[in-house]
């Protein structure tokens, strides 16, 4: 590891170690936003416990002039607010870095390292002397360290005040008390240390046209814009904030100002079996409906997903993936539901999946998911993860075209029905495998029976082999139509290399950064980010033209690689897995090391998987 | 042979309702259940009930889970949409469908296995939500399609066809529903069409969750000596406590009621149920007393039937959710999207 280079302006990572339930979130947001508003690209990642109060929690702020969105994989400045984790926190600081601790108490022996600078600030003493009440003192201690960082990193004090004024617009007294705590830390740092540190910020103009948002909020906003009216879910980390955000937006934009009527139904189900049932019932009956869940919920939804596939009922499911198997680590990230989502349920079932890479894509893919679900009359699963869903991302402004109208697919109106001689639910009139549907209440002529049992193309029950198989084969025609409708892969072949990286979802940021670093090593690689299942034709082509392909994903069992080998013609021997699965978001160094290890000896062609192993 | 369409031959002299439809217009596909199955009588009662209240066929939604009972939704009102879902999960489909369009009539048909075992959770929560639907349990105490295992409604001491005795206490859907706050709870017998038809009509009109537990003997697996759910046993042990007549909005009350015996309950659309107490000690408007009475009689081996509990519900799902009077699925997109201008306003928070 190299020493901290002298030019670390706008290029460093802060990590704040606290105890959960002490209100550090507002201090961290304050810091993030003040950097963002100074025009400097910044990313926030929250490593929190599955707990309400008292366990260690970390928040990482990456100041990144090159706008790299991945986890940095190194810490330049540690704010060690939790004595319980001192030992590991001090170890994590990169050589030449800094550590700030609360010096109200004598400095513990373990906070000693020759190659870093340790700065003591008596945060507890400062707050005890200036604030009353135990809770206030704890909360203000966190705001106080933010003040220290404002001085050390040369953040804009006026901007901090502006942000506090926005946050506490309705409670102005809180602006003053928070400002007081900020000032305490700020003044102490100014008086006792050389400010700013070599690593600090300097205003840029690189955040214009960007927002700072998490994926769950963006996805919820997408559901509002898709015209979803029924939201049903069972609370599960880390998907709950998506539903909370939908409710927040809907309360704001979907309530009739005159009557107070709410143009949406928000239903907390008794479990995930019920929540997916409600979504299927609502979409069958013509409302756009969705649910959000995580791995354990997907497991429970399997039977219903199979019904929706076979009975051809649209449904939209957001799976915010978390670490498995079983309960796993509910607040840590992975891409581990790829197989479970693609083939959910017994029998020959396959589901359309979308793989967003960031909050911006969560927004657009949410809208696309509803259009695809109704066009294809089948469930669509949007596979996000904790890193995308719950972390603060800088991303481009979300855009909206007022000309958008939902694609309701092949849905017959009463007038269209009356023109038909007879309506049959599952007869493929257009040859694309997609048949016409009707909504309850339309007209007796449009009535049909929806069932998960064997049925004919006319919708009637059957146990006749030929009649059953005709419907099953037509579903395959529809699956092939889906390949043409789902979002294309994002392909960067500018390196014109024989070597390619293939990946999905939240690996994207780390891969972009890795590609830049590899370029510095003289290694050019092409890159394809797959955005949907079934795989479109362009995926097949990219796989075919490259001689060596690194498949980067965040799970142990190479699920994405398995999907590629099952669903495309690619030769297995061309694929090398780079598997990261310790629960933290993947970082670029892991990819760079993996690629170089394979390419540099270049005689060792034995396919082998590189994995994250025990060390994050 | 897996599906038989019923030939539609209607005699011109068949009576018509105000929509000009005959009872035949409310029939469905031919039943494939065993000859003499209680469920077929319930299907006939549903046909009669829908015809009698002049229901537009397309305004009915039929929902079911899995089992013999769940098959029956295909056997009535072919002019309405039906959804035969998965085992025990019909209530969630009904919830979603009802959320999308509150202005249709929802009938769910389930069995004792579908409701009281695999579907017990969803059944309870549909009641808690006061989902506006009529939920009919075709209760025969036995699993038919898998050939005669006891269900959760099997009474202690009842004998299976192969001679095995049941020792586990039954789950009674009526008492359960009353405990959970259901606002319309009835029990009937598939062999008593006179009692059942008005109950179905009242249940369809009830604003909120309406339960009718219908004892419906299984002729193949549970109609033998020693069974407490056989035709013979049920006839002997069922006791009408409250008779309910359903009087549609535009009709006059024509039946002759003695003073003090009848109790009219006005439904939200103005139609009425007239309750006639056959057991003078029974009060179908007092939840606690009614539940105690049902339990007492049950201990004596008697099944009280009729509209056992009713109250005007004021907290049906949509009332609680404050949804508009029109269907959510009918709202034009323009009214649902805040548009580009709205997005700019929302995003200001994220800068």
Short description:
Chain A is α/β, with parallel strands linked by helices and 616 residues long. Chain A has 19 helices and 22 strands. Chain A folds into four domains: 11-192, Pyruvate-ferredoxin Oxidoreductase, domain 3, CATH 3.40.920; 213-396, Rossmann fold (3-Layer(aba) Sandwich), CATH 3.40.50; 415-476, no CATH class; 490-611, Rossmann fold (3-Layer(aba) Sandwich).
Topology:
The complex is a heterodimer of chains A (616) and B (351).
Chain A: E1 11-19, H1 24-37, E2 42-47, E3 56-64, E4 75-80, H2 86-92, E5 93-102, E6 117-121, H3 123-130, H4 134-153, H5 157-167, H6 172-192, E7 210-213, H7 215-226, E8 230-233, H8 240-253, E9 265-268, H9 272-284, E10 289-293, H10 295-311, E11 315-321, H11 338-342, E12 352-354, H12 359-376, E13 379-385, H13 386-390, E14 393-396, H14 414-419, E15 449-451, H15 465-485, E16 490-492, E17 499-504, H16 508-520, E18 526-530, E19 532-533, H17 537-545, E20 548-553, H18 559-567, E21 575-579, H19 588-599, E22 610-611
Helix pairs in contact in A: 1-4, 1-5, 3-4, 4-6, 5-6, 7-8, 7-12, 9-10, 16-19
Chain B: H1 38-52, E1 60-64, H2 68-71, E2 81-84, H3 90-100, E3 105-111, H4 112-116, H5 120-129, E4 133-139, E5 142-143, E6 149-150, H6 173-179, E7 184-189, H7 193-205, E8 209-215, H8 231-237, E9 238-247, E10 262-266, E11 272-277, H9 287-299, E12 303-310, H10 317-321, H11 339-347
Parallel strand pairs in B: 1-2, 1-3, 3-4, 4-8, 7-8, 9-12
Antiparallel strand pairs in B: 5-6, 7-12, 9-11, 10-11
């Amino acid at each position: 590891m190299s020493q901290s280079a002298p030019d670390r302006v706008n290029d460093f990572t802060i990590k704040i170690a606290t105890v959960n339930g002490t209100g550090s979130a507002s201090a961290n947001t304050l810091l993030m936003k003040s950097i963002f508003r100074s025009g400097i690209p910044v990313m926030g990642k929250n490593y929190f416990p599955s707990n309400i109060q008292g366990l260690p929690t970390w928040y990482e702020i990456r100041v990144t002039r090159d706008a790299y969105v991945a986890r940095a994989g190194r810490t330049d400045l540690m704010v060690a607010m939790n004595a319980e984790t001192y030992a590991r926190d001090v170890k994590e600081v990169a050589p030449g870095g800094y550590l700030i601790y609360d010096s109200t108490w004598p400095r513990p022996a373990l906070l000693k390292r020759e190659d870093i600078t340790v700065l003591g600030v008596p945060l507890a003493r400062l707050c005890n002397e200036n604030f009353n009440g135990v809770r206030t003192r704890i909360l203000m201690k966190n705001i106080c360290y933010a003040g220290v960082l404002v001085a050390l990193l040369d953040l804009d004090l006026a901007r901090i005040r502006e942000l506090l004024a926005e946050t506490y617009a309705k409670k102005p007294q809180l602006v003053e008390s928070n400002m007081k705590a900020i000032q305490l830390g700020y003044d102490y740092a100014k008086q006792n240390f050389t400010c700013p540190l070599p690593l600090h910020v300097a205003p840029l103009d690189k955040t214009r046209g960007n927002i700072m948002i998490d994926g769950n909020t963006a996805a919820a906003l997408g559901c509002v814009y898709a015209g979803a009216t029924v939201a049903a879910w069972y609370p599960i980390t880390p998907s709950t904030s998506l539903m909370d955000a939908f409710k927040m937006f809907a309360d704001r934009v979907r309530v009739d100002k005159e009557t107070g009527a709410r143009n949406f139904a928000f239903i907390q189900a008794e479990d995930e079996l019920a929540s997916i049932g409600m979504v299927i019932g609502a979409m069958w009956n013509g409302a756009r409906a969705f649910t959000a869940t995580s791995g354990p919920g997907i497991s429970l939804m399997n039977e219903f997903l199979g019904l929706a596939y076979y009975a051809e009922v649209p449904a939209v499911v957001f799976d915010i993936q978390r670490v498995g198997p079983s309960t796993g680590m509910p607040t840590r990230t992975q891409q581990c539901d790829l197989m479970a989502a693609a083939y959910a349920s017994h029998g020959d079932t396959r589901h359309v999946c979308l793989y967003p890479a960031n909050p911006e894509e969560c927004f657009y893919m949410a809208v696309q998911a509803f259009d695809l679900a109704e066009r294809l009359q089948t469930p669509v699963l949007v596979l996000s993860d904790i890193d995308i869903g719950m972390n603060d991302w800088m991303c481009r402004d979300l855009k909206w075209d007022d000309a958008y109208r939902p694609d309701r697919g092949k849905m017959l109106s009463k007038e269209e029905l009356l023109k038909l001689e007879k309506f049959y639910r599952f007869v493929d009139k257009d040859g694309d495998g997609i048949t016409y549907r009707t909504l309850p209440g339309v007209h007796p002529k449009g009535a049909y029976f929806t069932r998960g049992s064997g049925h004919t193309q006319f919708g009637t029950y059957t146990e006749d082999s030929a009649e059953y198989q005709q419907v099953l084969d037509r579903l395959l025609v529809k699956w092939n139509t889906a390949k043409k409708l789902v979002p294309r892969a994002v392909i960067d072949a500018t390196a014109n290399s024989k070597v390619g990286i293939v990946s999905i979802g939240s690996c994207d940021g780390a891969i972009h950064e890795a590609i830049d670093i590899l370029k510095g090593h003289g290694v050019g690689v092409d890159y394809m980010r797959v955005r949907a299942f079934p795989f479109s034709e362009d995926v097949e082509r990219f796989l075919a033209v490259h001689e060596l392909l690194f498949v980067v994903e965040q799970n142990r069992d190479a699920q994405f690689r398995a999907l590629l080998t099952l669903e495309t013609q690619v030769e297995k021997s061309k694929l090398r897995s780079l598997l990261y699965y310790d629960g933290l978001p993947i970082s670029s160094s892991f990819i760079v090391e993996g690629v170089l290890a394979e390419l540099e000896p270049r005689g060792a062609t034995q396919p082998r998987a590189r994995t994250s192993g025990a060390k994050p | 042979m897996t599906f038989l369409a019923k030939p539609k031959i209607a005699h011109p002299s068949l009576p018509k309702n105000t929509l000009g439809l005959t009872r035949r217009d409310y029939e469905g596909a031919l039943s494939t259940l065993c000859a003499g199955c209680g469920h077929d009588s319930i299907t006939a009662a549903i046909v009669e009930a829908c015809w009698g209240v002049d229901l537009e066929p397309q305004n009915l939604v039929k929902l079911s889970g899995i089992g013999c009972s769940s098959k029956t939704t295909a056997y009535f009102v072919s002019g309405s949409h039906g959804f035969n879902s998965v085992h025990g999960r019909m209530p969630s489909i009904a919830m979603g469908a009802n959320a999308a369009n509150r202005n249709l009539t929802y009938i769910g048909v389930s069995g004792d296995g579908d409701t009281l075992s695999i579907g017990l959770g969803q059944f309870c929560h549909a009641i808690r939500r006061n989902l506006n639907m009529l939920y009919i349990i075709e209760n025969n105490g036995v699993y038919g399609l898998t050939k005669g295992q006891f269900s959760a409604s099997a009474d202690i001491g009842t004998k299976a066809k192969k001679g095995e005795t049941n020792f586990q206490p039954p789950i009674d859907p009526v008492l359960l529903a009353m405990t959970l706050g259901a606002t319309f709870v009835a029990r009937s017998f598939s062999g008593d069409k006179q009692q059942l038809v008005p109950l179905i009509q009242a249940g369809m009109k009830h604003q909120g969750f309406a339960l009718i537990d219908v004892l419906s003997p299984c002729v193949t697996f549970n109609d033998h000596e020693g069974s407490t759910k056989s035709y013979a046993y049920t006839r002997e042990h069922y006791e009408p406590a409250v008779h309910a007549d359903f009087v549609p909005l535009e009709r006059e009350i024509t039946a002759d009621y003695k003073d003090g015996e009848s109790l009219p309950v006005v439904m939200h659309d103005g139609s009425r149920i007239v309750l006639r107490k056959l057991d003078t000690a029974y009060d179908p408007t007092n939840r606690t007393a009614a539940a105690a009475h049902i339990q007492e009689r049950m201990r004596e081996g008697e099944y009280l039937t009729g509209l056992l509990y009713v109250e005007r519900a004021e907290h049906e799902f949509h009332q609680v959710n404050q949804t508009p009077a029109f269907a959510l699925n009918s709202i034009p997109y323009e009214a649902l999207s805040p548009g580009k201008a709205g997005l700019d306003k929302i995003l200001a928070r994220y800068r």
